[in-house]
Fold these 2 entries.
Entry 1:
Amino acid sequence: MSTVFDYLDWRGDITFSEVGLNEVDSLILSMICYVDFGGIVPSEHGGSSVQLLSAARKYLRAHKGEQAYIGAILPASVLSLMARAAKTKRFGNLRMTGYVNDVNVEKEVQFSAVTFLLDDGNVYVAYRGTDDTLVGWKENFNMSFMEAVPAQLEAVKYLEAAAVSARKGIYTGGHSKGGNLAVYATVKTTPEIKERIILTYSNDGPGFDKKFITSLDYQNIKGKIRTIVPESSIIGMLLEHEENYEVIKSTQVGIMQHDSFSWEVLGSKFIYLDSVSEESKRIDSTLKSWLDDMDMKQREEFVEAVYDTLAATNATTLTDISTDKIKLLRAWNNLNEENKGIIMKSIKLLFKEGFKSIKKRK
């Protein structure tokens, strides 16, 4: 079984000017985007930039002696990937610019991105997926009832700023929510930038509501969108996908397949399968039916109630909660009866839809 690390060993000595960007390269850049390059990579586009090799060295020096940990949901392999990629000819000389990391509880936004300047004159605009912050997860859930969340709007502005750095074409992409942001920006950007976009990669990124995917803007650009999901995808199957998604093989099971380091690689491509698993279809059907049974106000009330429970622990990250579950229990006990009722009613509805889905597929 080969992964992105084996790909680096195989293709690492060939530059992008010799062989252009492919789907595995896209995933690697999408995952490196999770690293906190604050104070290392310039924030402004069109000005200075820094080599990935230099940025990786600065980051590792600054965190020397620390345990490799970047949150409860992100594998420490992200840092290993950055270090390994930085040592290759293919990735090490890439220049980085436009690093942004905006996490704001009051505005309910978690947005981060960085632009890679490829040595063939193209750029890769990488959007970070959901990080460890509670507000980041809150924003994800807000997608179920909001026409556009703040990170999506920021993604459009970012793409338009990044376009000035491209001598030729533009790739965009991301993993998880990052894939959703890449697609949103591609659909909502200016006609001139749309013309310059080569491909947009959504790596197990959630979809959109029906209004968005039936819009003329989406329909006109969907041919440039590639959605890649693992066999047992859950995150990537959320909401709606109009474009054809491609299913790949993973060494993990269930929701753990969202970990892109488990995705199997052969040469410069992933190993493809015919369709997602029956488990993925069942969960997808259950969640969609669950959401369909709630109007927008009910969805918002559920999200707010869950977030209020988590926020009452005074935690700001998933790591905070996972290390002190007693706080979560206390927060639940202190929650008002109305919010408790909203959460329990929604959970009962979810189980009900789950049982329906199981019966349908028997």
Note: The mean pLDDT is 85.
Entry 2:
Amino acid sequence: MRQVATTKITKAVRDLCLSAAYDLEPDVASAIRAARDREESPLGKEVLEQIINNFEIAGKESLPMCQDTGISVFFVEVGREVMLDGSLEEAINEGVRQGYKEGYLRKSVCHPLKRLNTGDNTPAIIHTTFIEGDKIKIKIAPKGAGSENMSKLKMLKPAEGIEGIKKFVVESIKEAGGNPCPPIVVGVGIGGSFEKSAILSKKALLRPVGSKNEDNDVAALEAELLDKVNALGIGPMGFGGTVTALGVHVEIYPCHIASLPVAINIQCHADRHKEITI
């Protein structure tokens, strides 16, 4: 067994919170630059240029690339040979607390009914799985409300099949319009159960932008959905254009014979995600 101090986890999470707010991941930055180059609308191209300037300044000046620094979502993989000296959840929340305070990041978490701010952006949303080995992998995806609020979940009838899935995804993006600050990344979770499909859709956003699912049929669905979404003409920040989405990532899971859950989680152009292995 390998013992890991929770203080080490707290520091790592603190650093992830700051890095995710300031530094856009290379895969996202490259995708946005490529989108600028192929955008056919002059206004859309100009908007993308402004987005690029914004994230470049954010990185150089250690400033948040967006004022909505999001609710902190974590996907954590814990090796079965790891022994912690305290609570994993408490360590992560303390890291969030420190990162958002020290970085002067906006605290956006509140009581759902009283709407009273918790004051430190905790509690975080933490999804934990156990894997083989003696390492801990922590992935963070700060999620702003503008894109999160445009996400949807629907329990389709199995008879609606793939065509029903396509229709639901495209209509949902069309309805969202410019609200989620396109060009967006679309995560789609298909199968499992009500809650599993939602987790799949969010986890899909952590993949490198434009990466393909290993299943050829799913990869073909991703490509078709991306074409259909970009054909909507919503364009960068909703001003019209040929690039509405940078990528559509689909994840699947076996489901009950009588159901077909489909979840759509949308991420804005500031597709913030970072990870570390301890």
Note: The CA atoms of residues 187 and 201 lie 5 Å apart.
